[in-house]
Amino acid sequence: MKRPVLRAARATAVCATAAAVLTGCGVQRTGVVEAGGPATIAVSSSPGQRMLLLYFVSPRGRVTPVTRMLAGGDDADPSPQPVSGAKALAALFDGPRGNETAAGLHTELPRFRGDLQVKADTDTVTIHLPIATARLTTTALRQIVCTAAYAEGGGSATVTIWGEDGGLPPARC
Q1: CB–CB of 138/121 below 8 Å?
Q2: What is the pLDDT of residue 158?
Q3: pTM score
Q4: Alpha helices by DSSP H, 49-137
Q5: Which of 118, 132, 149, 155 sits CB 3.0–4.6 Å from 165 for a disulfide?
């Protein structure tokens, strides 16, 4: 007599488990929920290093910040020291390095030979490039503007770009 009761109990347990699995426990699908802008992170450096912030293009086509640490800071001052706008832009035009390329980053900027000039005030940056600005895509211009704005103005500077073919309207990152 115990066997029929045991079989009935097992059958009931199997049916209950199957019902729970098949119904998904009541959880329904939802679409993507937007929850604000991208995350902000703090980057710190070691004493004796300077921070270089460059903007390259992600595999999805977005202008993305990349931090490089360079030797040459002051060991007595442990805070990250930014690199000048001219040096930051020269590194930007050199393009991404091996580990940055391996992460899928690229640039839309042409390589060029020649000097670029950067003049900065408290809230404005003016860049003179030895190339025609008409050759540059919107993404390439954004790479330049954001790199210069953060190198010279903490990200809030207004940037004006001049090239061999004239100037562009002031822009912000």
Answers
A1: no
A2: 93
A3: 0.68
A4: 85-94, 98-102
A5: 132
